[in-house]
Design goal:
single chain, alpha+beta, Helix Hairpins, HSP40/DNAj peptide-binding domain, 4 domains, 4-stranded mixed beta sheet, 3-stranded mixed beta sheet, 9 helices, 17 strands, binds zinc ion
Length: 374
Amino acid sequence: MADYYELLGVERNADSDSLKQAYRRLARKYHPDVNKEPGAEERFKEIGRAYEVLGDPQTRARYDQFGEAGLGGSGMPDMGDMGGFADLFETFFSGFGGSGGTSGRSQRRGPQQGEDLRYDLTIEFNQAVFGHEKEIKVPHLETCTTCNGNGAKSGSGPTNCTTCGGAGQVRRATRTPFGSFTQVAECPNCAGTGQVISDPCGSCGGQGVNQVRKKLRINIPPGVDTGTRLRVSAEGNAGVRGGPAGDLYVFLKVKNHSKLRRDGITIYSEVNVSYLQAILGDTIQVDTVDGLTTLEIPIGTQPNSVLILENKGIPKLGNPVARGNQRISVNVELPTRCSEEEKILLEKLATHYSVKGPQHHNSGLFSRLFGQKG
Ligand SMILES: [Zn+2]
Ligand SMILES: [Zn+2]
């Protein structure tokens, strides 16, 4: 294996910051997610190995003195077992996020924003159309009012963790096929906070937060639909150590209507009229979201034609003055049987047609429809 300093492209007297910078630069360059060139992954692993050794002052000293033989084990790395190294790489990469500074390893946990929460709410069809104010009870974490979120009994306060001396992190020796390395890990005693609570608050048990079911009034605007997401600011979980609360997202589901169907801002419905209403025209009452409304069936309305009620559709979300239309498709019902009286009238009509009208076949049509010989 190549010399670790050469692998990282640094001088033998390079300080720890230059080592870290060199490692990060090369690791990014050869990371298998980024670099698909042959050999890149192997190179990436070698760089990782080199930094594992040189990044720790103790193993670096042994390496400087004895070379790879100083790192323990048989001297020949066991290439079969890369599992341990994958974990170590994860540890290093997770430190790359956000902090930006060079002292990521000694960073203590600061305030954390609370989690966003999701609440599923089912509402009626008309509530979605016209908007609605709804009271919901949302279980979320709230900052403990007894201890103001610090988790300590009043009068006492958090004290420095004795396990890590307040650093929030501990150094731990890890054995790998290449020798034992020191790894920095979150302190198990204080979970990385650097502080412990010796006398925990009675209300929250030292957590600083309590699970509370909070009543909220949700203002549902007109025009929402299934899938609309309403954000309620700062009603998610409380933040930790003074961090801001998360948001609550209310996911809406709109129930179906028994007679009306919607698509966007248009409402669709059907209406049944008799063949006589279709032929002669009529004025009828139809269901709309505003209640029963008068609909004009024009003379000579054809089966499956669509009649439009303007402004009876769904209000536009955010601009409720603008409303869609309701489209009503007309089913023309033909009787399967009719009364004696009706039959006589229809036959009269059929005769009238066959004598006067140009389309003689119509009489045949009537007979077929009503099972009668003309
Ligand atoms: Zn408390
Ligand atoms: Zn600690």
